[in-house]
Structure formats: structure tokens, C-alpha cells
Amino acid sequence: MSCPRLGLSLLLLAALAWTEDEHGSEDSSHSKKKGPGHGHWSYADKDEWQLEFPFCSGQKQSPINIDTNSTIFSHELQPIVLAGYSLDPSEQLSLMNNGHTVVLQLPGSLTIASGYPQEYRAMQLHLHWGSPEGPGSEHTVDGRRYDGEIHMVYYNPSCGSIKEAMKQPGGLAVLAAFLQVGPEDNMHYQPLLEQLHKVQEEGKETTVAGFNIEGLLPANLGRYYRYSGSLTTPPCYQTVNWTVFNWTVLLSKKQISLLETTLQGDDDTDLQNNFRLTQRLHGRKVLASFQASLSPRKVPLPDGGVAPMTPAPDSATERSMDKVPGTGAGCPPCADSEKQLGFALQTADVLAGLFGALFAVTALAFLIYIHRQRSQNRRPDSHPKPNIIYTAATTDENTV
Ligand SMILES: *[C@@H]1O[C@H](CO)[C@@H](O)[C@H](O)[C@H]1NC(C)=O
Ligand SMILES: *[C@@H]1O[C@H](CO)[C@@H](O)[C@H](O)[C@H]1NC(C)=O
Ligand SMILES: *[C@@H]1O[C@H](CO)[C@@H](O)[C@H](O)[C@H]1NC(C)=O
Ligand SMILES: [Zn+2]
């Protein structure tokens, strides 16, 4: 199934968000506003995003710092399996500098076949980076910021449209991996990096011949963190089910430098440090597909690894590329199970409160009744009417 609204995928990067959204046409990405007035937001004023985009001050925002000792191991988190990522060179992908990052559009035929309870189809990928002066990943692990971060963005097709998916909890998924300086060039990144100079200025667009997209991710997709969060750019919708891989991707120093120094953003300034600061958890739990927390007893990890890094990038080539994509049959509806659960809990709370109040009233009535009975019994000329009073109390109870 192809996604007719793929042109809308840049919505995520709000440079184009509102104009495209409103036009709602596939061609809008070519007629977007590029003028000097463009730019509803920038990384320089990220403290003020929430003024125009209220979700940005919500309680499930991204990125976050991942405290490995606080992660909760879940054996339900199966390895991520991707399908359809080996693209033919005849397929042309759009690559664009949107003023905030460089975005590569992806066909919806790229899917996440396993690792999530629902089906996800690719929209686009983009990168975050720092500057020659410092690293620029969005997520941090135990307080450590990595050199860069790649985000592959997906939507749940059972939500109907991408636009709908963006507003449903779990309607979006992002696969995130850290970029790190390693000893040699990572050939998988060359198709992308080689084109960067063609999109140097904000708004520039070019095409890239299809290549092996999965090679951009770490070799091991089995070890990851999972949490509920948001888009890391306005409008900060809190609908992303995040996967952050434990294995990193290694690029050469030269490649990272190219990324950090080639592109320009607003007002022809260098496009650097395009990361948002980490957000508060507000009680959220971070799950891990592996035993990430080091217990004081130092139980050795099953695979013996402690801080695994990506092995030779080439080992990534032979992964399960040609699996049959999910058919979509049995794909759960894009219902918000969390919301439903929340509603159930809320209802239970209200009922508990009602019953509590009712019990108190009944008990009070009973006590008053006892008290009156006793007073009346003490009076020599009393004419008690226990039945009437008692009946009244019982009737009260039955009205509920
Ligand atoms: C996010 O993923 C987790 C674990 O895979 C799953 O249990 C949960 O239902 C998903 N959340 C949403 C809102 O889809
Ligand atoms: C990967 O997991 C190990 C073990 O928990 C941890 O020490 C390391 O910091 C993690 N790295 C990343 C990038 O998550
Ligand atoms: C995690 O817990 C272990 C054992 O308590 C401790 O030695 C280690 O320093 C902690 N790691 C971090 C990153 O807090
Ligand atoms: Zn991103």
C-alpha cells in the first residue's frame, strides 16, 4: 500500500508543517514558503516553543536522558526487524534541507515487520548533530551526549492518514540511533553525505538514488530502549513510540565534520546544534529489550557485552532485507489503549468515590437512627417508629 500523503511527512519538521497541512496537497512541498519570514520556530528560541505550540510543554516530551540503571527489562520487546530497505538505484528519493535538518523522504514500502505491536510504515529520516565544538545527539544515555543521532520516522497506517496518525498515541514511531566518531568511513552514509553540498541552503532539494537504507542503522537492532514521547520539534505532538538503539553507528571524523559544517539554516547561518535539550520524564518508564541496568552483583550479560559499539559497518549488509512486509491483517486499530485504560481507571476512581460517600451517608443515617432509638427508649412516653426509619435507610441504599 502506498501512502498518497507522503508529501505531508515533512509535517514532522514543522518548517513545512502548517503550510503543507493547510494546503493538503502533495505538491505543497514544492511550493512551500522559503522567504525570510519563514520559520515559526528555531533552536535558538526553544524555550519559547510552547507559546505557539502548547504540546511542547506537555508531560510526555522528547528527547530524554536514559538512565540505564532505571530502565525496566521487558522480554516482550522483540528485536526490531525491518523489511524492504534495500532500494533499487532506479528509485529516486528526495533529499532536502528544511532549515532545521536534512530530510530524506522514504517510501511507505519500508516497514517495521517486528518489534512493535502495531504496523509501521516509513515516512522519512533525518539527522541531528552538534558542531566542531561539541556533540549533538538529542537523547543522552547516563548523561552522555553522543556526536549525532539519526531518526527514522514511521506512521501507523491503520490510523487512516499520516495526519491522523500524528495525533493518535502510538500513531508514530521513531527508530533512533546514536552517531559516533569511529576509525573509518562508514560507506552506508556516503550516498547521503555526498549530496549534502547540493542542499547547502535552506529550502534546497535534490534527489538521491535508492540505496540500502537499513545500513544507516546499527548492525544490532535487538538491543534498544522503548518509551512514549513526542516529536522533538514543534508541534511536539506526544504520539511517538520511541525506539532508541543501544548499539551506535560509527562514522569517520571526516564524515561527522562534513555533517557539522556543510549546511546552512535560517539567515544563512551554519546549521549546527540542531538538538533539543532533554525533557523531564514526569513518571514515565523506560523499557529495555535487554538487561541494561547493572545490578550491584554484576551479573554478566548473556552475550557478554557491557558497552557494545557498532562493529565493522559492513556487517550490517546481510540482514533480513527481503522479509515479506506485514500484510496489515490483524493490525490492531489505531486505538489508544492507554487512553482507554486511563478512562477505565478514572471511572473506577469516580465509582469508588461515590460508593465511599454513599457508605458514609448510610452509616451516618444508621448512627442517627440508633441514637434516636436510644433517646426515645429512654423517654417514658416514647412511641418508636423503627420500621419507618429503618425502611427509609434501606430505600436510600437501594437507589444506587
Ligand atoms: C508502544 O510500544 C509498547 C511496547 O512495544 C506497547 O506496549 C505500547 O502499547 C505502545 N504504545 C502505544 C501508545 O502504541
Ligand atoms: C548500552 O548498554 C550498556 C549496558 O547497559 C551501557 O553501558 C551503554 O551505555 C549503552 N549505550 C547506549 C548508547 O545506550
Ligand atoms: C548503576 O548501578 C551500579 C550498581 O549500583 C553502579 O555501580 C553504577 O555506577 C550505576 N550506573 C550509573 C550510570 O548510575
Ligand atoms: Zn529528529
Automatic annotation (TrEMBL):
Residues 300-326, 375-400 are annotated as: Disordered. One of its GO terms (cellular component) is plasma membrane. Residues 1-19 form the signal peptide. InterPro entries: CA_dom, CA_dom_sf, Carbonic_anhydrase_a-class, Carbonic_anhydrase_a-class_CS. Residues 39-290 form the Alpha-carbonic anhydrase domain. Its EC number is 4.2.1.1. One of its GO terms (biological process) is morphogenesis of an epithelium. Keywords: Glycoprotein, Lyase, Membrane, Metal-binding, Signal, Transmembrane, Transmembrane helix, Zinc. GO terms for molecular function: carbonate dehydratase activity; molecular function activator activity; zinc ion binding. Pfam families: Carb_anhydrase. Its cofactor is Zn(2+). It is an enzyme of class 4 (lyase). The chain crosses the membrane at residues 350-370. It catalyses: hydrogencarbonate + H(+) = CO2 + H2O. Belongs to the alpha-carbonic anhydrase family. Reversible hydration of carbon dioxide. This is Carbonic anhydrase. The gene is CA9.
